[in-house]
From TrEMBL:
Belongs to the LptA family. Gene3D superfamilies: Lipopolysaccharide (LPS) transport protein A like domain. GO terms for cellular component: cell outer membrane; outer membrane-bounded periplasmic space. PANTHER family: LIPOPOLYSACCHARIDE EXPORT SYSTEM PROTEIN LPTA. GO terms for molecular function: glycolipid transfer activity; lipopolysaccharide binding. Component of the lipopolysaccharide transport and assembly complex. Keywords: Periplasm, Signal, Transport. This is Lipopolysaccharide export system protein LptA. The keyword Signal applies. Pfam families: LptD_N (PF03968). It comes from Nicoletella semolina. Residues 1-22 form the signal peptide. InterPro entries: LPS_export_LptA, LptA, OstA-like_N. Its main location: periplasm.
Length: 172
């Protein structure tokens, strides 16, 4: 029984490494989960971490009140992180930091689809997007940001950062 629980737990967590693009070396790093409590429902294939959850893997860092990982038969996992807010940070291959925050972050590993909901924000250097909801298709490399009638999507782009990126691409 303990071996089954441990195996399921390791399978679920090992797939988490592909959830967010970061340094290529991050995916080979160990996944560390710290929480006040955790539970495993073997029958439903659900692992729940609660009470000030901190997940790290290489340069990836996620803070949340609660993280639920669901494995559906024959499908890849779905990860739900909840908090006020959930905060994640990562370093990209180019060395730049990306930060995100939202009240809820969901990632469907099978569809490679990320959703940030509730006061969502993505930030890289001084550029950022704020919206009620931000979705990102990893496969299609498409981002969509939406807000309700009461608020609007806010985007700040720093032209100097785009110029730096273009000059670096020309050097390659």
């Amino acid at each position: 029984m303990k071996a089954t629980i441990k195996s399921l737990f390791l399978v679920v967590l090992s797939t988490f490494s592909g959830a967010i693009y970061a340094l290529k070396s991050d995916t080979s790093q160990p996944i560390n989960v710290h929480s006040g409590s955790q539970s495993l429902d073997i029958e439903k294939n659900i692992v729940t971490f609660s009470d000030n959850v901190l997940i790290t893997q290489g340069s990836i860092k996620i803070n949340a009140a609660k993280v639920v990982i669901i494995r559906q038969e024959g499908k890849k996992e779905k990860i739900e992180a909840m908090g006020s807010p959930v905060i994640f940070e990562q370093t990209l291959d180019d060395g730049k930091r990306v930060e995100g925050r939202a009240n809820q972050i969901s990632y469907d590993l099978g569809a490679e689809f990320l959703t940030l909901t509730g006061r969502a924000e993505l930030k890289q250097l001084d550029s950022f997007i704020q919206a009620e909801k931000i979705t990102y298709s990893v496969k299609k490399q498409q981002l969509n940001a939406t807000s309700s009638n009461k608020s609007r999507v806010k985007t700040v782009l720093m032209p100097t950062q785009f110029q730096e990126k273009k000059s670096q691409e020309k050097k390659k």
